[in-house]
Amino acid sequence: MKSYRKELVFHTPTRRAFINITPNIEQCLKESGIKEGLCLVNAMHITASVFINDDEPGLHRDFEKWLEKLAPEKPYSQYAHNGYEDNADAHLKRSIMGREVVVAVTDGKLDFGTWEQIFYGEFDGKRDKRVLVKIIGE
């Protein structure tokens, strides 16, 4: 069995963003040479997320509104965590959107359902953050 590991780095100019990283992951899969197996993609920061959904701008705006209703950024004083930092909402948003995805690799391709794409969700941006890609198989 082969194993491939790579860290991707993302730096968003805004506090929150959704980035389609599917092309990055497809490039990793190509580099790995693995044709059959599993691909794990996970955010290595507690205020960022990796998830699968549709790449549709209206849906992304809906995510933003929904997450802001569930865990509003302000007022900062509403959170016990906020003291030294002001990112409690980012921790909660990450918990909702998830840490990682696992996608089957079949015949050298990510085995997606219709419209599925992999996204990096940033909830406390403006700095470098890492995403781990681990692919195992033959």
Mean pLDDT: 98
Low-confidence spans: none
Q: Which range does the strand content fall in?
A: 35-45%
In what order do the strands lie side by side in the largest sheet? 1-8-3-5-6
Q: What is the string of helix and strand elements? A: EEHEEHHEEEE
Write down the domain tally.
1
* Architecture per CATH nomenclature, i.e. the level-2 architecture: Sandwich
Task: Note the total helix count.
Answer: 3
Structural class by secondary-structure content: alpha+beta
Biggest pleated-sheet summary: 5 strands, antiparallel
Rg on CA atoms, Å: 16 Å
- The H-level CATH homologous superfamily, spelled out, is YjbQ-like
CATH class label: Mainly Beta
The level of helicity is 25-40%
Span from first to last CA? 5 Å
CATH fold-level label: Jelly Rolls
Oligomeric status: single chain
In total, how many beta strands? Answer: 8
**Coarse morphology:** elongated
